[in-house]
Amino acid sequence: MRALPRSLLLASLALALWLVYAVLGPGEDFLGYRAFALHLADYNLARGMYSPPWLALLVTPLAVLPGRWGYLLLLGLTLTAGWFAARTLGGKPLVVLLSAQMSWVLWWGQIDALTLLALSLAVLGHTRRSWRLLAVGLVLAAVKPHVVAVPVIALWWWSSGSRLKSLAAAAALVALSLAVWGNWPALLAERLLPFSQSASYRPWNATLGLIALPLFVPALLVPLDRPQRLLALAATAMLVSPYMPYYSTLLLLVFPLPWPLLALAFLGYLPSLIGTTLAWNGVVLLPLGVLTWVYLRAARAARKAEASRRVVAAN
Fold first, then answer.
1. What is the longest distance spanned by two Cα atoms in the chain?
2. How many domains does one find in the chain?
3. Which of 31, 121, 189, 295 has a CA-to-CA distance to 48 between 20 and 30 Å?
4. Is 1 part of any domain?
């Protein structure tokens, strides 16, 4: 009986958010994805896109809808993906839906729903030993690899029984895309180089950059259970990526995190009070805090295990 009111609360909140952004949201980023999808045949025309061409296939059902209907449907899909990812990973859907990260994604019409789905489907593919779900997770992760590729690849690697089939399916899609769109990876690389040298995205970039690469060592070697290692890898990848817009840290919020870290879900609402350096760039504290929390828990567990061994040895 208690679950029903909670479900109704979340459904009501999602509907209220959908109505607010349906009326007020400009959805300007979605317009770029829409143009990309409508020029599907020629990847050369997608000058502002930094994703593989199959993104256009995913967006096409929304792009062909008249007026703002594509953006409105994207809002609903994004809210649903946030709820689904939090339920799948064990996070708090209420925080995910109300976060500043989600607000940015909804307002501008970003496609971070795909990163949430990529991770969620990869988790389900791993736990259910489904190579099909893993393959879909790999394909979706390629849309925003700087956000979600590392944890999805980790899940794929841990799924030994499904590894070859899922990789073959994803590779078949890549081969088909090369046949249809030509050498699109070379075009994508040409676009990424000037983008990586641009300073225009710095106000909302929440990363340390390549200087954080050594953090992969503890993420891979510290004794952790699989869920905690997955979280550590996801947080480390966000710190290492040269480009990590603060709103893409939405991915971390779908994990089960302590409330002090979840408070950072609302920091992005405060640029007018504390400036963008703290409100947006400061969200780098979220992946840093996640790693601190994970490793402190691991250290406490190791100390308890050692104390238990000593007690057993003394007896």
1. 76
2. 1
3. 121
4. no
Q: Is residue 7 one of the residues assigned to a domain?
A: no
Report which DSSP code applies to 231. Answer: H
**What's the half-sphere exposure (Cβ side, CA atoms, 13 Å) at 9?**
10
pLDDT over 80 (residue 237): yes
pLDDT at 205: 85
Q: Which among 166, 74, 138 has a CA at the least distance from the CA of 111?
A: 74
Which 8-state DSSP code applies to residue 64?
Answer: T
Enter the tokens of residue 188. 């994508």
Q: 245: which strand partners?
A: 205
pLDDT tens per residue, range 27-85: 999 999 998 898 887 887 776 778 999 999 999 999 999 999 999 999 999 999 999 99
Question: What does the buried/exposed string (b/e) look like for 246-280 if buried means 16 or more CB atoms within 10 Å of the residue's CB?
Answer: bbbbbbbbbbebeeebbebbebbeebeeeebeebb
Q: Could you tell me if residue 90 is inside a domain?
A: yes
Which position has the token pair 């869920």?
227
Residue 79 tokens, joined = 């809210």
Q: Which residue has the tokens 């829409």?
A: 34
The helix/strand/coil state of 302 is helix
Within-domain flag for 290: yes
Domain limits for position 25:
12-314
| 201 close to 243: Cβ distance less than 8 angstroms | yes
- Tokens 């890549």 locate to 174
SS3 of 218, please?
A: helix
Distance between alpha carbon 150 and the CA centroid of its chain, in Å? 10
d(CA 203, CA 279): 10
